[in-house]
Design brief:
217 residues, four-stranded mixed sheet
Length: 217
């Protein structure tokens, strides 16, 4: 697998999907409790002049791990992880739940999408030519997203991991593909793979972190 993709961070307005499923954690040596709730979502307008897509009905990113690394360093012992298989809905946003942290800042999110079977990304929609299409990437992804977020003790720190769907689909024209017998344009490693190559190159350039702190979840 290639080296992790390093991406800059910038603040973006987004939303929190409510719901908590605490995986557990420790807090800091000083006794102050640090908590974070992570939401994974897409952003960007659904329709742009750069996109040959009339409608998106589904945009899923399948995550296997998210690691939060503190700004002070400290190696693996200082990381706090979300581990497990998460099917995230980038159109609606998916809350991965609340986690207790042993760190007071987050400078890096390492994000892995390495499912044992099935695609890592699946997009469904309708092209501007009126054709149903499905994009499936089976590539294993590892993003390294820089953030620099100072966390507040004894409150819930909201973190948002965002992927720009406009960038993902920039220059991706499903109507250039060949439909299957059911009239669906399949874009994957077997069918219309040249279009998939454009899509995957776009995915490799996106990712950002936004933060917001509040007293309630």
């Amino acid at each position: 697998m290639s080296d992790p993709i390093r991406l800059p961070s910038f603040a973006l307005l987004c939303f929190l999907i409510a719901g908590c499923a605490p995986p557990g954690g420790n807090g800091t040596d000083s006794g102050n409790a640090f908590q974070a709730a992570l939401t994974v979502a897409g952003e960007g307008a659904l329709i742009t002049s750069a996109r040959e897509v009339a409608d998106l009905s589904s945009a899923q990113l399948f995550l296997t791990e998210v690691e939060m690394e503190p700004c002070a360093g400290g190696g693996e012992d200082s990381e706090t992880d979300y581990e497990g298989d998460f099917t995230t809905d980038l159109l609606l946003g998916t809350d991965l739940g609340t986690i207790d942290l042993s760190i007071d800042s987050v400078c890096t999110l390492e994000v892995e999408s390495e499912p044992a079977s099935g695609p890592s990304i699946r997009i469904e929609g309708v092209s501007t030519g009126g054709q149903d299409f499905v994009i499936e990437s089976s590539q294993q992804w590892e993003f390294e997203v820089e953030s620099d977020v100072a966390l507040q003790a004894d409150t819930l720190n909201q973190l948002f991991l965002l992927f720009d769907l406009d960038v993902w689909l920039d220059g991706v024209d499903p109507d250039q593909g060949t439909p299957n017998a059911e009239g669906v344009i399949e874009i994957d490693s077997v069918y219309n793979s040249d279009i998939l190559a454009v899509f995957e190159a776009n995915v490799a350039t996106t990712g950002s972190v936004d933060s917001e702190s509040g007293d309630d979840g």
